[in-house]
Design brief:
Length: 133
């Protein structure tokens, strides 16, 4: 099974991240950390199963078994306001840490993962061994 890390940095108004393994990389944008409050917070760090979602609102991938949360999906967007607690995906950040090229990042994610499931390890960004490239 594919495993992806999501290394995150917590800013006052948003959470930025890098979704990656040795074969795939994208940037992520989420709501700020508001202690897992529904619709306004990023989800807690941890290990999650992510399944292909062909029936949800956005129909990419859905993160399973998030404590006290439901319908947490990966989908496209540019600004943190495009998310109600989901994980937005893009190719890179602009100068204000908004996402750029979300459609191409989601297309690459679909090409890499396909219809299968994957494991997602959400953790803090560690400057000693992580980089944004």
């Amino acid at each position: 099974m594919i495993k992806l890390d999501l290394a995150r940095s917590y800013l006052p108004t948003k959470t930025i991240g890098k979704l990656f393994n040795d074969n795939f990389s994208a940037k992520t944008l989420e709501r700020p950390d508001k202690w897992n409050a529904r619709n306004v917070s990023c989800i807690p760090e941890g290990l999650y199963l992510v399944e292909r979602d062909k029936s949800g609102r956005f129909q990419y991938y859905a993160i399973q078994d998030v404590p006290q949360r439901s319908y947490i999906e990966f989908h496209g967007g540019v600004y943190v306001t495009h998310s109600d607690g989901c994980v937005l995906v893009g190719e890179r950040f602009d100068s204000e840490f908004n996402l750029v090229d979300s459609d191409s990042a989601l297309s690459a994610m679909l090409d890499y993962i396909g219809d299968g499931s994957f494991l997602l390890n959400i953790r803090k960004f560690h400057p000693n061994f992580d980089n944004w490239d």
